[in-house]
Amino acid sequence: MSASIRPESMARITNFELANAFIDQQVAEIRQQVGDKKVLLALSGGVDSSVVAALLIKAIGKQLVCVHVNHGLMRKNESENVLKLFRDGLDANLIYVDATDRFLNLLAGVADPESKRKIIGKEFIEVFADEARKLEDITFLAQGTIYPDILESIKAAEGKKAVKSHHNVGGLPEDLKFELVEPVKLLFKDEVRVVGEALGLPHAMVYRQPFPGPGLGVRCLGAITRDRLHALREADAILREEFDNCGLAEKTWQYFIAVPDIKSVGVKDESRYEGWPAIIRAVNTTDAMSATIEEIPYAVLHKITARITHEVEGINRVLYDLTPKPIGTIEWE
Ligand code: XMP
Question: Does residue 331 lie within any of the structural domains?
Fold first, then answer.
């Protein structure tokens, strides 16, 4: 599948039968394109790169080399889960790179959101390129490009302006020249999910909420510090657990915690206790261009507040953001 425009005649993949036909066709095409050469893939654990990984493992097994870069801005247990699923579950050829210090050292003292995004995006490419240079005989680079990415680049080429800069693994340095393998580039997100499930990936993984490339970096507002990042990660894990428990996870498009760089006075064990507020954001949208607020029942809000303020060191208040997009964006940065 080399063309980058989806043919009108291409049926929408809505069930396992169509997904399996797509998988068989792609497996054959990938084998033909790749032969006995090796393919490199940046495996973030997001839906698109995971589905591409599973597809390539099915087609070429250990000729696929996955690199998972932990930029230190992942959610709780996220990298561990990628390793468990792909290395233990699918026997993938997977290199794990813990680059937390590289990222957090570069980000120290940087408060401007777009500068943070640029640093994270650029460093991601550098860490990935460093790993690629260590490997020998890699001919191909696989990418989880999907059809909306292609439509987005067409829009960008027409000069339409974006509110925020998003990054992916485009633009590797000159010395790294690979041929691209983009097996899901003509699929929409819902189709990628059906293909993922048909490939045997867990439902929760395939239907997980979107997570921005810069990760918790744009939710630890302002200049990132390790202690506030840790508090954010723990509070976010509690929010996700409680959303799972009460069924909100299934029906909410995106939900997370943001922690701003301000402290308020609180009281704990009869002493003054200064801490950061944890801000709950839970939104629904179809295209991320506009968003409405998911209404969280008071009992759930109380439980989340009690858990976060008791269990997370450094947080002494919990706030609930009721701002739609527009006027707010979904992320705070
Ligand atoms: P905003 O905040 O612009 O978010 O309303 C819309 C959607 O995009 C995600 N987002 C990002 N994704 N890199 C990404 O890959 C980014 O820098 C980035 N910023 C926002 C956001 O999580 C939401 O789903």
Answer: no
Q: Say which residues have a Cβ less than 8 Å from residue 229's Cβ, sequence separation at least 6.
A: 72, 73, 104, 216, 220
Of 184, 206, 228, at which residue does a domain stop? 206
Distance 267 CA to ligand 1 centre (A): 35
Residue 259: helix, strand or coil by DSSP? strand
Q: 0.90 cut: is pTM over it?
A: yes
User: Residue 212: CB within 6 Å of ligand 1?
Assistant: yes
Mean pLDDT of 221-241: 98
Q: Are residues 166 and 297 in the same domain?
A: no
Structural contact between residues 67 and 41, judged by C-beta atoms closer than 8 angstroms:
yes
pLDDT tens-digit profile of 252-307? 999 999 999 999 999 999 999 999 999 999 999 998 999 999 999 999 999 999 99
CA dihedral 112, 117, 123, 126 (to 10 degrees): -140
Domain that holds residue 311: 219-320
Residue 63 CA to residue 83 CA, distance in Å, equals 18
Instruction: Output the DSSP codes for 160-175.
Output: PPPSS----S----TT
Model confidence pLDDT, tens digit, residues 58-76: 999 999 999 999 999 999 9
Pocket test for ligand 1, best of 149, 166, 189 (most atoms within 8 A of CB): 166
